[in-house]
Design brief:
By secondary structure, the protein is an alpha+beta fold. The chain is 37% helix and 21% strand. It has a 5-stranded antiparallel beta sheet, with helices on one face. The chain has a 3-stranded antiparallel beta sheet with strand order 6-7-8, with no helix packed on it. A hairpin with a 2-residue loop joins strand 2 and strand 3. It starts with a strand and ends with a helix. Bound molecules: adenosine-5'-triphosphate and magnesium ion (MG). Adenosine-5'-triphosphate binds next to strand 2. Magnesium ion binds next to loops.
């Protein structure tokens, strides 16, 4: 068994042919972000932005604390909703707290630019963290597949891909 602790939102345990993705609860991180926002005197502009774009301050705090659960639930749904999108299979989810994925091999320098979703980054350059880093992908059955596809911001990418 091997433990990986590199994910921001999930702790990933590799065991046999499976990857167990355990949601992190980031209460301290959320509190830290609030303190930094207040400290930088950005609070008023940030809060009005959050109200306009992200459903209010409480919703932003919940999204930060439960980001791992949201990511796990999104991966479970998207794997069923977007067959053929080049995703590492998510076999099951236990209430979003733990996802079970097929285990892939880590990619380092292999080109990922042939992946179906890679082409969609022009939509939003901020998605490069999700789609342009080799650590986001795995090699499984001789295919390059995306292993980390739970970010809510990826929804337009999936829609653009499915509509051709
Ligand atoms: N199915 C898998 N098979 C093998 N390794 C995996 C698998 N899923 C994830 N990993 C490994 O665990 C690491 C973290 O997983 P992942 O990127 O899904 O978590 P995250 O919390 O969403 O990460 P990030 O920091 O990118 O937000 C990956 O970079 C990869 O090395
Ligand atoms: Mg990742």
């Amino acid at each position: 068994m091997q433990l990986i602790n590199t994910g921001h939102t999930r702790l990933v345990v590799l065991a046999g042919p499976y990857a167990f993705k355990i949601a992190k609860f980031r209460l301290l991180y959320a509190l830290w972000r609030i303190v930094v926002t207040l400290w930088n005197r950005e609070a008023v502009s940030k809060m009005s932005l959050w109200r306009r774009k992200r459903g209010g301050v409480m919703s932003v705090v919940l999204q930060a604390v439960f980001a791992g659960v949201y990511a796990n639930l999104a991966e479970h749904r998207r794997y069923q909703e977007y067959p053929g999108a080049g995703l590492v299979p998510t076999l099951t989810t236990w209430w979003g707290i733990v996802n079970v994925q097929k285990r892939g091999d880590t990619l380092r320098a292999i080109a990922i630019d042939g992946h179906p979703l890679f082409q969609q980054t022009h939509l939003d350059p901020s998605l490069s963290q999700d789609l342009l880093r080799p650590e986001q992908y795995c090699m499984l059955h001789d295919q390059v597949l995306l292993a980390d596809y739970g970010n809510p911001a990826l929804e337009p990418v999936f829609r653009a891909w499915i509509s051709g």
